[in-house]
Amino acid sequence: LNVISVTVISTLMFNLKPSKPKKLQYLLEPPVQVEVAGRRGDNVTLPCILRIKPNHYKIKWTKLDPEHLGQQNIIMISNANAFKPYGPVGRRASLLRAHTMDASLLLSHLELGDDGRYQCELINGIEDENIVITLRIEGVVFPYQSQHGRYKFNFHEAELACAEQDGMLASYSQLYRAWTEGLDWCNAGWIHDGTVHYPIVHPRPVCGGNLPAGIRSYGPKNKNHDRFDAFCFTSQIPGSVFYITGSFSYDQAVYACKRQGSALALVGQLYAAWRFQKYDQCNGGWLKDGSVRFPIVSPRKRCGGVPEAGVRTFGFPSKTTHLYGAYCYR
């Protein structure tokens, strides 16, 4: 039966020949999959090279955002002599122009929201054509829960919570990549497109029963009324996180950081330090949101006892508790 099934499928695939993509006449054919990666604050180049230069043409760079179609997605329109930027991304964009056939886009000071697909389109009024480049912001996804407990955020509150912790709601592709890197979390959370998911690496009865490992999905939910946790995304930080030893209450921790010319770190800043600066500290410390956490790069028995690297949490203890040090950022 299996052999017959494979044969039928193969025959169908042979008969249903996919239509060949249109051969580019003016733009240089990119590699099969074009992805440019960068971290927050970096400068990157999105390649677009002309093979033949028409007599009259324009180059239009657009960010392809399925949630916000329209003119606000245009980044830049240029001709052979000048270019005009559009929108907030356009203010950080310019043409590389390394040579006369170069229409590549230079993006400066990358932000978290720059992640996505970009289109370089040649317009000459007769044979318009385009190529698409993916820009991936390198970062880390972290689950975030309200200090009032599990499943307290509607979508808009989840957006705000991530922003307050130096992040933004993760995209599905960012959550998927985090899952492939080992993110295992049994609480469902909002992501950027308004859908709700949770990633499971180690299936167990309390997390969806006997379903296989993967991204469990609740699909789109009511952004105003339904309540879940949040999956936030952040990237590298310009400053650094450091730990002050002590048995502080929350207010004492605030003061301890202030004396060092810094402030209590945000959750996203601690995750970024853990991911990009390999920050490892086996002591619980206060963060600005009132939670207590500690980052572990090299797992060991006396530091939480969990075999995987990660940022451990003690939740949101009473702010008058005198047990923890302080994680500061400057």
Walk me through the structure.
It is found in: Secreted, Extracellular space, Extracellular matrix. One of its GO terms (cellular component) is perineuronal net. One of its GO terms (molecular function) is hyaluronic acid binding. Belongs to the HAPLN family. Keywords: Disulfide bond, Extracellular matrix, Hyaluronic acid, Immunoglobulin domain, Repeat, Secreted. With about 325 residues, this protein is an alpha+beta fold. It folds into 3 domains: about 35-135, Immunoglobulins (Immunoglobulin-like), CATH 2.60.40.10; about 140-235, Mannose-Binding Protein A, Chain A, CATH 3.10.100; about 235-330, Mannose-Binding Protein A, Chain A (Roll), CATH 3.10.100. The protein is about 15% helix and about 30% strand. It has 6 helices and 21 strands. The chain has helices at about 1-15, 85-90, 155-165, 170-180, 250-260, 265-275; strands at about 35-40, 45, 60-65, 75-80, 85, 95, 105, 115-125, 130-135, 140-145, 170, 190, 195-200, 215-220, 230-235, 240-250, 265, 285, 290-295, 310-315, 325-330. A 6-stranded mixed sheet has the order 1-9-8-3-4-5. Strands 10, 11, 12, 13, 14 and 15 form a 6-stranded mixed sheet that branches. Strands 16, 17, 18, 19, 20 and 21 form a 6-stranded mixed sheet that branches. β18 (about 285) and β19 (about 290-295) form a beta hairpin. Residues about 1-20 have low confidence and may be disordered.
